[in-house]
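Page 47, continued from p. 46.
Same chain as before, 383 aa.
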Amino acid sequence: MIALTAAALLTPQQQIEQPLLLLEGGKVAEVTSSAAREIPTGCRTFNFPGAVLAPAYLDIHIHGGAGHDVMEPSEDGLSRFEGFLAQHGVAAYLPTTVTAPEDHILRALEWLAKRIEDTAATARARPLGIHLEGPFLSHTRRGVHPPENLVAPTLARFERYWQAAQGHIRIMTIAPEVDGALEVIAEASRRGVCCSLGHSDSDLSTARAAIAAGAHHATHTFNAMRPLDHRQPGLLGAILTDGRVTADIIADGIHLDPSVVQLFLRAKGTKAAVLITDAISATGMPEGRYRLGSFEVEVRGNECTSDGKLAGSVLRLDQAVRNVMQFAGWTLQQTVQLASANPAAVIGEKSKGVIAAGADADLVVLSPRGEVQKTILGGTVSE
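Result:
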């Protein structure tokens, strides 16, 4: 058994001062305080004075990092990428595809499915499933997704992707106004896929129809969407006002002005807002040209562009947490939830994103300002 002590422990429901956390067999065995319980005899004890224990993060929309794109079938590249995520507090993620020729997407889904089914324990972030972003997107709001590869959603096409991914598609971004979208949303939702509305020029009524069909999330809110209009609010009107819909944002200070981050957080609150990175292979790398799926992206400073349009980010999830604290004045406890419990809830993961008896022992040790000091995966604490 392993015992952890620190200055505080954060969960969405409470903050425990001087916590005592017991881990066993890769799981959380007990959550208590040093005042309420002595450390059991024989425990390996790790103390983190002045630090905060929190659930490790989940990134449900990420294309790559550390020089690797997740659609490239490279074991070494993916391992480097997963190690990079772990260094920044991320325990689990959804490798996210981009629109490409169908054979390219199918090969990527097959490769990623094999990686997901490899259950060997590692000290790296683990893929929990796949986020299929494209090709069921709006031409009008496609962003940098190649227009020649966008296709209308059909049950047959969805079935091909589903079979290639061996049932591991957890999120699918889809534009609800595209012909065939509502039927595919209903079928994908029936199979447990989180249908996420995005890359869309939808009006309000179509967005509401998609939510009624089963869609319950929104992809990088405000970006690649019809702008909010006070008489024709469109998709954003549904996202910001419907309590059944969770939604994510890229809080890098580039994709959204900090004032819009504040507006979003006031609308969605602590339970329905989610932080993502939309990070590409350039994350953690020098400036230059990098791959995103089948095309190249230019990276200068913290901005990623292709043909003058934003093309993902080089944001890390730990930085997104700190940005929200700065942009909106939220506490660390409030903000950590947006990167842990909330994304876990979006994909129905009950053992991730929480610190509770029986949950996976995936933890991040933070400074009071949110800087990552250590990541603990599967209850393994490195010296």
